[in-house]
Amino acid sequence: MRTILLISIALLQFSFISIGEKDKFRQDVAVMHGSEQGLPQGAFTEIQLYNNIPIAIASGGTYEWNGSQWTRIEGSKPEHSLSQFKKLPEGTGKVLSEVTYKGETYLGCENGLYVKAKKGKWKQVLPFDENYSWALKKVAALVVDTNGNLWFGSKEGIGKNTNGKWQLFTGKEGVPYTQFTCASAGPQGEVWFGTENGAIRAENDYFYYRTTRRWLPDNHVNDIAVDQEGTAWFATDKGIGQIIPKEMTYEEKAAYFTHLTEERHNRMGFICQNHLSKQFDIDSYELAISDNDGQYTAMYGAAQAFRYAITGDKEAKAIADRSFKAVKWLVDITPEPGFPARVIIPVDWHETVNEQYSKEYNKRHQKNDPFWKDIYPRFPLSQDGKYRWKCDTSSDELAGHYFYYGIYYDLVAETEEEKAAVKQVVADVTDHLIRHSFKLVDYDGKPTRWGSFDPDYFNSIWGWDQRGLNSMMMLSFLNVASHVTEDPKYDEVSKMLRDEENYHINAMHPKEFFPPENVVPWDNNLGLMSFYGLINYEKDPELLMMYRLSLEYAWLNISKQKNAFWDGLYGALANTFTKKVNEGYFNTRELFKENPLFAQSVIDRYGKSSLDTRYIKETLQRIPLDLIGYEMDNTHRLDVLFDPTPAQEADMGWRMDSYALPIDERGHVRLDRDAFDLHDSEGNGYSEHEGTFYLLPYYFAKYHDLIPQ
Q1: Residue 550 domain-assigned?
Q2: DSSP letter at 340?
Q3: Which of 56, 82, 362, 591 is most solvent-facing, going by the fewest CB within 10 Å?
Q4: Is residue 22 within 8 Å of 37, Cβ to Cβ?
Q5: How far apart (Å, rounded) are the C-alpha atoms in residues 314 and 261?
Q6: Which positions ≥6 away from 78 have C-beta within 8 Å?
Q7: Which helix (DSSP H) or strand (DSSP E) does residue 568 occupy?
Q8: What confidence score (pLDDT) does residue 338 get?
Q9: Do 305 and 313 contact (CB within 8 A), yes or no?
Q10: Residue 176 within any structural domain of the chain
Q11: Is 163 contained in some domain?
Q12: Which Pfam families does this entry report, sorted A to Z (predicted)?
C-alpha cells in the first residue's frame, strides 16, 4: 500500500509543464517515515548525516536510509555526546548544548550561556540588543550557520550573534515557541530549531513554524540534521520526518493541483473533498459529496476558465466545459424549473443518504435550529430513476452558480450552442426566483432553509441580519442575468427592488461582523463572489459608486486574513473602479445631486485599491501541496494576540503584525474559513481537499494582473 512518503516522492518527480515564469519560490514538502519504510515504532533520539546519508538512532538500533528504505546496520554509529568539561562555574546546571564559534567553545546550560575565555576560564554570556537584555535559562540549542553567525535557543527566545553584535527574538519578533531541544544549520544560511512542540526554521530573520501531523510524525523533536540539499531530517518521539525544499513556479504548482483534482476529486464532473477511510492515507480515499457540490464545482470551473483565458489551453477549456455542464445538470435534474440541486449521486451510492436525514433526524435538528427544514426525502429520485439529488439548496449554491455563469459566458463559451446553454440555465434559475417572490422553492412548494431573498424575510426577526448580504446577492444575480440573456426584464426587476424595497441601500451593509455569533466566514465567499457580477455588469454610475463603498466595507473587515481569493476579488473590482475613474466614466457634477460633494468624496477616498498584493503571493506560495485536513492548535504560540472582542470565542487571534497566521501554519486550507481561528480542524486527517484553493486564486489573480504574468 502506498503511503504519504511515496506520494511525496512521486510529486517531486512530477513532470511539470512551465510557461516560462521567472518567479520561483521554496515549497516545503513533508514526508513521514515509519514501519513501511523499515523503521520500528517508537521514539528516535538522534538523526545524523554521514557522507550526506541519514542515520537514525533509536533505543533498539541504528538505521540507514538508502533513498527508498531504512535498513538496520550492525554496530551503532557514535552518538552525539556532549564533551566533559571541568571547573564550570557553580550553578550552571546541566550542560544542554555545545558549539565552537570562532575558535571558542560555547556551552548552553540550564542556567546560562557560557564561553571558555582566555586561560581556560568560563565566562557567562549575557546577550543584549536595543530591546532586550537576558540572563539565559535552558539554552538547549546552539549552532553556527553557514554565514558565520552564532545562534542559540533558550527559554527567553532566540538569539543571533553577528560579528559580536546580538539580535534577540521573542514572540513579538515572530518566535512561536521556546521550549527548545536542538538546532541544526542548513546550507543557505537557514537554521532549524527543534522544540517540544514542533520545529522552527529561521530564515532571513523570519520564523517558519512546522508542527502537527501536516509537517512532522510527532511534535516532540529530539534531533535535526540538514543535508547538503537543504532537506531537514527530524528524529521525533514517533518516527522520522523529512521536510524537502522544492523549488517551484506558480504554474508548476497549478499543474500539480489540476492533476491531483482530476485524479482524485472528479465525481461525474462534480468537484469536492474526499473522505479517507484510513487517517492520513490518501490511498484510502473515497469519492465524497458535500452540501455545496455546485459551488465547489463552479469555483473549480472558474479557475479553469481564467486559465483558458490566459493560456488558451485546450485542457482548461475541456474542464471548464465539463464543470459548466455539471452545474447546469444540477438545475436540469429537478422537477421544479430553475431549482438547482445541491448534489447528484447514482442511485446505488454507497451511503444511505435518506436514512441519515430521516424525519426523526429533522425533528432532533430543529431543537438547535428551529428553522431547519423538515423535508423527506432529502435525496429524491430523478425522473429516470438513475440518480438521487439533494434538495434544500442554499444561497451558497446560488453564489457559486452565478459567479460561474458570467465567467463561463464571457471567457469560455464560444459557439452559439454553448452561449445558448448559459442563457437558458441563467434564465431558468432567475425566473424561478422571480416567480417565487425571490425565494428558492423546493419540490414541496416551500422555501428552502437558506434560500430567501425576499423583502418579507429581510423585515422579519429571523432574516434582518441577512438583509444586506442577500439583497446584494439578489441584485448581483439580476445583473448576471441581464448581461448573459440581454433580456431587459431583469433590469426592470432590479429597478423595482431598488425603488420599492431599497435593495441597493441594504447592499451598502453587505456583511455582519458583530456580534460574533452572526459572523459566518463563508458568507465572505458568497458576498465577494456576488460582488464580481454586481460590479462588473453594472452600468449606472451612481450604483457603481455605492457598490464600491460596499465592497470596501466588506473587504476591510477581512483584509488581514491572508485569503488570496478574497484579496484577489477585492483587488480586481477595486481596479475596475479605478479604471472607470481614470477614463472619466463618473461625471461627479451630475451624480447624487442632493449632495454634489458626495461623488467626488467617494472617488477621492476609494478611487484606488488599498490592496497589498504581497499577501496574495505569500499565500499562493505557502498553500501546502498536501491538502489533507489536519487538526492544528496554535493557542500556545507566543507570536499571537488573542481577539479581545466581547463575546468572541477564546481561540481567535492573529500574529503580532495584526495579520493572520500563514496558511501552512493554520488548520485549514479552504477559502471560506476564518483565518483568525487558532484551533481548527478540517477532517482531522480523514479528508483530502481539492486543489481549487490554489487554482482559483492563482488564475484569478493572474488574469487580473495582481501577480506577475
Answers
A1: no
A2: P
A3: 82
A4: no
A5: 17
A6: none
A7: helix 564-582
A8: 98
A9: no
A10: yes
A11: yes
A12: Reg_prop (PF07494)
Sheet containing 53-58, strands listed edge to edge, beginning at the edge strand earlier in sequence: 44-50, 53-58, 61-65, 70-73
Read off the pLDDT band of 16 (50, 70, 90). Answer: very low
Q: Which of 452, 346, 478 is nearest to 393 (CA)?
A: 452
Side by side, the strands of the sheet bearing 198-203 are 180-185, 191-195, 198-203, 206-210
Q: What are phi and psi of 448, to 5 degrees?
A: -75, 170
DSSP state letter for 705: T
Total tally of structural domains belonging to the chain: 1
Q: Give the three-state DSSP class for 236.
A: strand
For residue 209, the domain's CATH number is 2.130.10.10
Cα–Cα distances (Å) from 556 to 365, 599, 607, in that order, read: 35, 21, 15
> Which residues lie closer than 8 Å to 129 by C-beta, 6 or more apart?
165, 166, 167, 168
What lies within 8 Å, CB to CB, of 219 at 6+ separation is 196, 197, 198, 211, 212, 236
Residues in contact with 138: Cβ distance below 8 Å, sequence separation at least 6, in sequence order: 96, 110, 154, 155, 179, 180
The whole-angstrom separation of Cα 167 and Cα 161 is 6
- Between the alpha carbon of residue 456 and those of residues 30, 80, 372, 466, the distances in Å are 53, 74, 19, 12
pLDDT, position 23: 77
> Which pLDDT tens digit goes with each residue over 384-395?
999 999 999 999
Task: List 109's β-bridge partners, or say none.
Answer: 95, 112
Output the nine-digit C-alpha cell for 338: 430553475
C-alpha cell at 55: 542515520
Q: What is the CA radius of gyration of the chain?
A: 29
Main-chain dihedrals φ then ψ at residue 249, nearest 5 degrees:
-110, 165
CB-CB contact of 562 with 589 (8 Å): no
Cα(217)–Cα(367) distance, rounded to whole angstroms? 41
- CA nearest to 113, candidates 133, 138, 90, 131: 138
pLDDT in tens, 515-563: 888 888 999 999 999 999 999 999 999 999 999 999 999 999 899 999 9
- Give the range among 79-93, 249-263, 288-302 with minimum mean pLDDT: 79-93
Residue 167 lies in a domain: yes
Please identify which residue in the block is written with the cell numbers 527559554: 155
Q: Are 647 and 517 in contact (CB under 8 A)?
A: yes
The pLDDT value given to residue 14: 40
Q: Is 201 helix (H, G, I), strand (E, B) or coil?
A: strand
Residue with cell 461625471: 587
Task: State how far Cα 84 lies from the chain centre.
Answer: 49
Assigned C-alpha cell, 321? 466545459
**Other beta carbons within 10 Å of 325:** 15
Residue 118 structural domain:
95-237
Q: Is 488 exposed, middle or buried (0-12, 13-18, 19+ CB in 10 A)?
A: exposed
| 8 Å CB contact between 631 and 212 | yes
Exposed, middle or buried, 575 (CB in 10 Å: 0-12/13-18/19+)? Answer: middle
Q: What is the pTM of this model?
A: 0.95
Length of the chain: 709
